[in-house]
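Example record for the data management plan.
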Amino acid sequence: MARRCRLSRPVACAIMPANPYLTAKGRQPQTSREETAVGYDVGSYRFDVTQFFTEDCFAAISDVRVSEPEAVYEHAAARKRRQALTRDGRLVILAADHPGRSITRSEDAPLIMGNRQQYLGRVLRVVTADDVDGIMGTPDILEDLLIADMLVQRAGGDSFLDGKILMGSMNRGGLAGAAFELDDKYTSFTAESISQLNMDAAKVMFRLDLTNPDSGNTIYYTSQAVNECAELGIPIFIEPLPVEYKDGKYAVKRTAGELIKIAGVAAAVGGTSLGTWLKMPYCEGYDQVARAVTLPILMLGGESKGTPVPTLQEFAAGMRAGPNVRGALCGRNITFPGPDDPRAVAAAVAYVVHKDANAENAVAYLQERRGEKMDDLSKWF
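Corresponding structural encoding:
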C-alpha cells in the first residue's frame, strides 16, 4: 500500500511575507509602457509559495534526509530518463544553483533565495510543470527534488522527474564578492557523482577577465571537466562570460564582439566539443554571436528584472538569431519574476522556445496559466 507522507506535527519554519516584492519604500511594482505594449498585467495577483509548497512538504524532505538518505540513490537509479537529450532539438532548463555561490538576493529582497522554503518551493513549482524540460542545480537542490519526487510516488502520485533533464552544476567555488571569485574551483558535482545519481548532463562556467590570472585557472578546471564528462558520455553545458570589475562587482560585458570571442574560446575547451552546448546571454547583434560557433546555444536570463516581459522579448528575438540557438537555461527571471507565478512564466518561456511564439503571444499564454493547479504538490503531503 502506498504510504502517505502527511505530517501531523507543527514545523517551525521561517516564512517570507506573502508579498516580498514590495520595494524598499513599500511601493507596489509599477507597470511600464513596455509591459502595457505586449498586454502584460499582473494586477493584484501575488504568488504565495506556501500555498504550493507547504510546511508539511518542507518538513517531510528533512525527515528523509535524517531517516533514510540511502533511499535517494535507489530512487534516482529507478528514475526513467529520456532516450535523447531533446525531444525537438530545443530545451528549456531551469537554473537553480545560485545559493551555492552565496547569491541570495532577488530585486529588493536581499535574502529571499536564502529561504529554502521560498526557493525550493518556487523551483518545484516550475519543475512539476510539463512545459519545462528539466533543471540544473547543485547536489542539495537536486537531492531535495529527488526526495520530493519519491514522497509523491509513495503517496500514490506520478513522478514529476521521469523524462526530465537533471543537470549537475559542477563549479561553485567562486563565491560572489570573494577575493577568489574568478578562481572558480569545482566544489560541487563531479562527473562521477552525476553518473551515480543517474543524471543527464553537467553544467560548468568560466568568467574571463583578461586582467585577472584567476580566469586562466578556471578555464583549465573547465577543460578537465569537459574531458571527464566525455569519458562518461555526459553532455556538458559551458557558460562562458566576459566580465569586468565595476562598482565593486564583476559585470558581464554583453556586447556581440565580446561574446563572439569568448564563444570561440569555450567551443575549443577540452579534448572534444561533440557533447558541448553553450549557455550565453542575449545581446544586440545576437545573430553574429550565433554564427561564431556551430555548437548549440541556450540563452541565460541573468539577474531578475522584476517582470517577465523583457526576458520573453529577449528570448523571442534570440530564437530567431540562428539555427543553433536552441532554447534557454534561465533561473531567477523564472523563479522570481516579480509578483507573478513562476510556473506561468516558465510555460511562457517554453511557448517561445518550443512553439516559436512572439513575446505578445507568450504574455497572453502566461496570463492563461497563472495560478493553475496550486495543489499539484501539497495534495500528496
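Summary line stored alongside the record: Confidence is low (pLDDT under 50) at residues 1-27.
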